[in-house]
Design goal:
Its cofactor is Mg(2+); Mn(2+). It comes from Qipengyuania pelagi. Keywords: Isomerase, Isoprene biosynthesis, Magnesium, Manganese, Metal-binding, NADP, Oxidoreductase. The protein has 385 residues and is of the alpha/beta class. The chain has 3 domains: 144 residues, Rossmann fold (3-Layer(aba) Sandwich); 153 residues, no CATH class; 69 residues, Rna Polymerase Sigma Factor, Chain: A (Orthogonal Bundle), CATH 1.10.1740. Helix 6 runs antiparallel to helix 15 and helix 15 runs antiparallel to helix 16. The structure holds NADPH dihydro-nicotinamide-adenine-dinucleotide phosphate, 1-deoxy-D-xylulose-5-phosphate (DXP) and manganese (II) ion. 1-deoxy-D-xylulose-5-phosphate (DXP) binds next to helix 8 and helix 11.
Length: 385
């Protein structure tokens, strides 16, 4: 990258946000930081905003504005708070906005960045899963560009470069299988066990999703929106080493794969520098030290999430947003010690099965409304057992 560029990071205090800022820190002169956001972590947000000389820091929790102002006192950083301020931060002109809020809570800010017609590096998969065509249509309408940060989707994006989607025979998403792949009794799994991912250091919610395989289910839906080759051309293979991040097989029999260390700075750097490349401090891949790569079919009896997600994607309309909302409620309840691990997928199935789904959302407001309704239904089901 030769020119100085500007960046906004939504979810700057999280795992993806931190990896992004680590890359920027290493080439500080190349970047102007426009806006950084967080949900409740005022101290880290203020520290980062000062360090990176951000124009704007936004805290999602409205009542924390006073705390943020206090933490930023004496600096030039503008402070703001609340849901609307998150969207305004996302809509500020910047060369790239990194969408790294977790959950459907990130949807409105992502849509605001898209509606500005900018480049959005998307980590926040729940936003695309929930909004689906509402988001992809907005990308087209506003001339925005989505660059996939999620490691599998970034791998596919790289493997597709210079090729036509018409020539794709299969897209294979790799899955580590998570920390519980070989654990017998899923009922007694604790939150600490579920978040202990074997290969990646990530936030709590996505770590639980990896353990249930809902992460792969969400990624299947995410992939079919990003790479519209038809749902029946996507396969999932369990690859416990997480060295191959995904693959594309073409009609001539060639399979292209992207390999790399399990370090999110690689796909993030690929987005930040796209269509060029930039340096990262990541360890070079040492295949001889790794020794063996192995592959297994997913076990959908023990981990039904990928089947549920495929069915929701096939049903289309409101189903993916309902699946995502129910999963978010279930994961939060599991992390709070309120439900067993195996109740996560059974709750999602129950919410999806419970009567007629609402009509397909046509707007951001429709998506947010059905997200809220599905959360209420999931919470009620948890309360009534
Ligand atoms: N971590 C990873 O390696 C990968 C993550 N992803 C995806 O990226 C996204 C972020 O994941 P990750 O970085 O692990 O998550 P973290 O939990 O580590 O960070 C989440 C970030 O979002 C903010 N946030 C949380 N809730 C809200 C809310 N309601 N409103 C506004 N901001 C909020 C948090 O602020 P605060 O700190 O104040 O709570 C934090 O900055 C997820 O969608 C995940 O699936 C995809 C691939 C890999
Ligand atoms: C780093 C990343 O993209 C995660 O989504 C990761 O892939 C999780 O791994 P599994 O869901 O395959 O366990
Ligand atoms: Mn991923």
């Amino acid at each position: 990258m030769n020119e100085r560029r500007s960046i906004t990071i939504l979810g700057a205090t999280g795992s993806v946000g931190g990896s992004t800022l680590d890359l920027i820190r290493r080439d500080r002169g190349a970047w102007d930081v426009v806006a950084l956001t967080a949900h409740s972590n005022v101290d880290d947000l203020a520290r980062l905003a000062r360090e990176f000389g951000a124009q704007l820091a936004v805290i999602g929790e409205e009542h924390r504005l006073g705390d943020l102002r206090e933490a930023l006192a004496g600096s030039d950083v503008e402070a703001a708070a609340g849901a609307q301020a998150l969207c305004e931060a996302a809509a500020r002109p910047a060369d790239i906005a990194v969408a790294a809020i977790v959950g459907c809570a990130g949807l409105a800010p992502v849509m605001a960045a898209i509606e500005r017609g900018g480049t959005v590096a998307l980590a926040n998969k729940e936003a695309l899963v929930s909004a689906g065509e509402v988001m992809t249509r907005a990308v087209e309408r506003h001339g925005a560009r989505l660059l996939p940060v999620d490691s599998e989707h970034n791998a596919i994006f790289q493997c597709l470069a210079g090729n036509s989607l018409d020539d794709v025979r299969w897209i294979t998403l790799t899955a580590s299988g998570g920390p519980l792949r070989l654990v017998g009794d899923l009922d007694s799994v604790t939150p600490a066990q579920a978040v202990a991912h074997p290969n990646w250091d990530m936030g709590a919610k996505i770590s639980v999703d990896s353990a249930t395989m809902f992460n792969k289910g969400l990624e299947l839906i995410e992939a079919h929106h990003l790479f519209p080759v038809g749902l029946d051309r996507f396969r999932i293979v369990v690859h416990p080493q997480s060295v191959i991040h995904s693959m594309v097989e073409y009609r001539d029999g060639s399979t292209l794969a992207q390999l790399g260390p399990s370090d999110m700075r690689v796909p993030i750097a690929s987005c930040l520098a796209w269509p060029e490349r930039m340096d990262t401090p990541c360890e070079p891949l040492d295949l001889a030290a790794i020794g063996e790569l192995s592959f297994f079919a997913p076990d959908e009896e023990r981990f039904p999430a990928t089947r549920l997600a495929r069915e929701a994607a096939e049903a289309g309309g409101a189903a993916p947003a309902v699946l995502n909302a129910a999963n978010e409620v279930a994961v939060a309840a599991f992390l709070a010690g309120q439900i067993k691990f195996s109740r996560i997928s059974s709750l999602v199935a129950q919410v999806l099965d419970g009567g007629n789904l609402p009509p397909a959302p046509q707007s951001l407001e429709d998506v947010l409304m059905l997200d809220r309704a599905a959360r209420t239904r999931a919470s009620n089901l948890l309360e009534t057992g």
